[in-house]
Amino acid sequence: MLARRGDGPCRATAKKDEVAYWDLYDLTTDGLEGQTADAEAKARRILADDLSVAAAVVCPAMINGNTDTYKKIYDHQVNDWWTSLSEDEQNDIIANNPDWIDNLNGVSLAARSEANKNRLDAMKAEIDRQVKDFEPKTELQWTGRNFEYKNTSGYEAMLQRQKGIDSLRDTFSYSENPDKERIHSLLVLDNSGDHLRAAVGTGDIDAADHVLVYTPGMTTTVAGGLVTGGKEFGAKVDEAERIMSETGMPDHDDKNTEQVEETAAGVTWLGYDAPGWDETLTGSDGTVLSDHEAQSAAPDLAGFYDGIQATHTGDPHLVAAGHSYGSTVTGYASQESDAPDDIVVWGSPGASTVDASDLNTVPDRMYSASATDDFVAGYGRYGGNPTTDPESDFTPLDTRGHYEDGLQASAGHSLYTKAGTTSLHNLGNILADNEPDYPAPED
Predict the structure, then answer these.
(1) Rounded to whole angstroms, how far apart are CA atoms 85 and 288?
(2) E-state strands within 143-244
(3) Alpha-carbon distance 342 to 246, whole Å?
(4) How far is residue 35 CA from its own chain's centroid?
(5) d(Cα 314, Cα 371) in Å, to the nearest integer?
(6) Residue 338 to residue 365: CA distance in whole angstroms
(7) C-beta of residue 67 within 8 angstroms of C-beta of residue 61
(8) What's the CA dihedral at 43, 44, 48, 50 to 10 degrees?
(9) Phi, psi (deg, nearest 5) at residue 182
(10) For residue 381, which of 416, 411, 422, 353 has the smallest C-alpha distance?
(11) What is the pLDDT of residues 16-33, one digit of tens each?
């Protein structure tokens, strides 16, 4: 929240906002008569009050002069503040104070991305120092045959953070190439959790007609899942982009042509501590056998959904999507946001509930895919099995092959987005705001 980012934003905007408030409030209605004058005066007061709210949000000290009073910052209020700034003021914050807006919902996603990328050099310097100073780096461990000195778990975790930051920095340096077919952005960057967290956008999220927010599951990490450290993005970003490609839509408007097309953009959201094998084998709170991490992640993902709605240039068709444990995160987040238009999960151990009303949607806007040999999808541990529960409001999707149409079956737990499969085709239908071509056959 801006209130937690020091008084810099307040100093930057308070004086201007105070002047603007009284300029609006004191404007006369000379030359206007009757109801027209009353309406004009009321409109100006509303605009002034809106500006006052934005200023109060940015600077809690402006609320009755009490710096201990904090108002909840709503995304649209943050957006009011951000859009009230001039382009030069916005650029100055992005360049010199990127931490004010780095992961702040309500600020345009394009601006957040530039701010986050501007933080990478400082984050690299900090993580390099932490890795160098970390102790103990090694300890004597039993390998099954003898004792050997190996890295401690804490040092391994620190190295994984370093690898993630280095990979983000390197991959995004390559992605600045203007000739690249895809536009990529860094929408979340957070090193405060048990793991490095991030989110990568593909396409023009702020303006696309259709927006996918895809949350991957267990063992997903920034390095590998989101970025490779080379010129290519990670495996989970590839999955989101295959769904986008299945729509047949570009991910951003081509400014070199006057042809108007619908666009489809996507976000691969890893803004949470995805459970890993270490957490699962040690039985910690972060184990995949608990929904602790999913519930903890829900407010952040719900806020991200709401932030897209607040900053978008129109009213996007927003699809909340999740695979495996990411579907559980998606379900809990959907209970806290009404921004998504469609919810789709695949390989799901449960999406927190099977009731549409709990997910702020209706039955014909929620879908679930489950391959016949996916044991995770048959689990139903977290809120029931979305595909097979008799009380489920999810529409089950077909994952069998439709070879007459050139579509293959999905096999196992991790191949739902494989090119040429029925399941990927259905996911593309849903992102394009169409009915899936292949619902699961009724028993």
Answers:
(1) 44
(2) 147-151, 184-190, 197-202, 210-215
(3) 17
(4) 46
(5) 36
(6) 12
(7) yes
(8) 20
(9) -100, 145
(10) 353
(11) 444 444 444 444 445 545
Q: Are 367 and 395 in contact (CB under 8 A)?
A: yes
- Distance CA(279)–CA(164), nearest Å, equals 19
Picking from 156, 140, 136, the residue whose alpha carbon sits closest to that of residue 148 is 140
Of 120-129, 186-195, 253-262, 323-332, the range with the lowest mean pLDDT is: 253-262
Q: Residue 21: which residues within 8 A CB-CB, separation 6 or more?
A: 48, 51, 52, 55
Question: How many angstroms separate the Cα of 197 from the Cα of each of 138, 150, 163, 182?
Answer: 25, 26, 12, 22
For residues 321 and 181, what is the distance between their CA atoms, to the nearest angstrom? Answer: 24
107 bridge partner residues: 105
Q: In whole angstroms, give the CA distance from residue 440 to residue 442.
A: 6
Q: How far, in Å, CA of 129 to CA of 117, rounded?
A: 20
**What's the half-sphere exposure (Cβ side, CA atoms, 13 Å) at 362?**
2
| CA quadruple 58, 61, 67, 71: dihedral sign | negative
With 0-12 / 13-18 / 19 or more C-beta atoms within 10 angstroms meaning exposed / middle / buried, residue 364 is exposed
Q: Residue 285: which pLDDT band, with cuts at 50, 70 and 90?
A: confident
Q: What is the pLDDT of residue 180?
A: 61
Average pLDDT of every residue of the chain: 86
Q: Which residue has the tokens 């972060």?
A: 286
Burial class (CB in 10 A: 0-12, 13-18, 19+), 358: middle
Task: Report residue 97 as tokens.
Answer: 């104070």
More reliable by pLDDT, 214 or 36? 214
Provide CB contacts within 8 A for 31, sequence distance 6+: none
Residue found under tokens 């494989």: 418
Q: What's the CA gap between 233 and 402, in Å, rounded? A: 30
Q: Tens of pLDDT along 68-96? A: 332 345 788 999 999 999 999 999 999 99
